[in-house]
């Protein structure tokens, strides 16, 4: 109370909120949007922020050490993914990597028919729609099941009836409802019809193991900030990088695939985060899965009328998308949770400020009046946080009309 009194003298009655605020737990459950930087990753980055500042393209010792840092990361990621270092191209993140793959399909491979789904991330969907609007490609959308999975029979129909070579772009895990796509089955169909296959794996890279030599995929994408690395850096895997012309021109960096001085400390951070995630993947999966299951159980027990979006049996273990009954104060629900210290989202962070609702939920379920909340978890979350968040949801949840 002494602290509140001291502040009241300066701020008046506004200071009375201070002791209450200090007592609230801060729970971050929006890890599908971004994850907190691992402190150990930061330690790895610091030397490259402070001392190893050379331009990787310079031939002197400062540049050579910087180049060595980048190439070490490239080799280690390639070894984990069972591909060659030449097939890993560092980018500014998942969006650029997705754009590079699509650009390659159109302008390097000369493909005019693209197949995707209406619930893809906007990095893919908006890019394809833009090229389709300009008349550069024909865009087909694969049907979805009632819970949002890709209809593989319809996909094969689209490939068979295309009459030309196709490019298929389907994400491994949906970033809003968490549905996992069987990308091995999709890739096998693509091989059967000589189609190129690109999968946005931003939500799953470093959360699941990939053997890219065996997986029938031509492009996959990654973003470091989805697995406790820094923002602004990611990579594209390209099975045949020799055919990949740069999306960004202006230099011969990244083996002539991407112009511009490399994000040295970002790449080093990506590598450190990837290695830590890869080494402890099984442990992290068990921990996060237990948190997700606990949250689902608590919500089912405590919140009337709750349901869940997506497929429970074939789902990303870091994402739980809950649907609440019709209510009169739906637009305030996320705001009230935030006031109580619980950070969640209603969908993709890339749609911040949009008023049209989730294109994913609309694509699967049609126009929805219900309030949907995405809870997404990380290895840094605790059971205590889950219990606190579930209790706040119970207190604030919309009441069925």
CATH third-level topology of the largest domain: Aspartate Aminotransferase, domain 2
**End-to-end Cα distance:** 41 Å
On the 0 to 100 scale, the average pLDDT is 90
Radius of gyration, whole Å = 23 Å
Which sheet architecture does the biggest sheet show? 7 strands, mixed
* Strand composition percent: 5-15%
Indicate the topology.
Blueprint: H1 2-11, H2 18-23, E1 27-28, H3 39-50, H4 61-81, E2 88-91, H5 94-108, E3 113-116, H6 122-133, E4 138-141, H7 152-161, E5 166-169, H8 183-192, E6 196-200, E7 219-223, E8 234-238, H9 253-256, H10 264-279, H11 281-302, E9 307-308, E10 319-324, H12 330-339, E11 342-343, H13 359-365, E12 371-376, H14 383-396
Parallel strand pairs: 1-11, 3-4, 3-5, 5-6, 6-7
Antiparallel strand pairs: 2-8, 7-8, 9-10, 10-12
Question: Could you give a short description of this structure?
Answer:
This protein has 401 residues and is α/β, with parallel strands linked by helices.
């Amino acid at each position: 109370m002494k602290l509140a009194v001291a502040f009241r003298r300066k701020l008046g009655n506004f200071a009375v909120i201070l002791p209450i605020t200090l007592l609230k737990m801060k729970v971050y459950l929006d890890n599908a949007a971004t994850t907190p930087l691992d402190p150990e990753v930061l330690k790895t980055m610091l030397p490259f922020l402070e001392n190893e500042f050379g331009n990787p393209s310079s031939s002197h010792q400062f540049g050579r050490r910087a180049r060595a840092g980048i190439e070490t990361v490239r080799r280690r990621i390639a070894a984990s993914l069972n591909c060659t270092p030449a097939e890993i191209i560092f980018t500014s993140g998942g969006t650029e990597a997705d754009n590079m793959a699509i650009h390659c399909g159109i302008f390097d491979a000369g493909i005019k028919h693209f197949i995707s789904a209406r619930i893809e991330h906007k990095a893919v969907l908006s890019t394809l729609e833009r090229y389709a609007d300009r008349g550069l490609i024909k865009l087909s959308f694969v049907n979805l099941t009632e819970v949002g999975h890709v209809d593989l029979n319809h996909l094969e129909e689209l490939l068979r009836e295309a009459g030309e070579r196709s490019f298929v772009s389907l994400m491994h895990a949906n970033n809003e409802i968490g549905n996992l796509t069987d990308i091995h089955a999709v890739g096998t169909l693509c091989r059967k019809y000589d189609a190129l296959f690109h999968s946005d794996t931003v939500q799953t890279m470093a959360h699941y193991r990939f053997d890219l030599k065996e997986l029938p995929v031509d492009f996959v994408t990654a973003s470091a900030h989805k697995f406790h690395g820094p923002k602004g850096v990611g990579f594209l895997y390209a099975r045949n990088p020799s055919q990949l012309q740069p999306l960004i021109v202006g230099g011969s960096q990244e083996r002539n695939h991407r112009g511009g001085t490399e994000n040295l400390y970002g790449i080093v951070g990506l590598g450190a985060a990837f290695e830590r995630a890869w080494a402890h993947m099984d442990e992290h999966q068990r921990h996060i899965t237990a948190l997700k299951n606990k949250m689902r159980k608590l919500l089912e027990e405590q919140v009337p009328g709750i349901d869940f979006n997506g497929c429970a049996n074939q789902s990303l273990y870091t994402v739980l998308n809950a649907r609440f009954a019709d209510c009169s104060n739906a637009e305030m629900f996320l705001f009230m949770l935030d006031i109580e210290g619980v950070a969640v989202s209603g969908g993709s962070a890339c749609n911040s400020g949009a008023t049209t609702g989730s294109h994913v939920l609309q694509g699967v379920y049609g126009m929805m009046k219900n309030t949907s909340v995405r809870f997404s978890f990380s290895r840094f979350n605790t059971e205590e946080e889950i219990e606190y968040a579930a209790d706040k949801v119970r207190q604030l949840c919309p009441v069925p009309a």
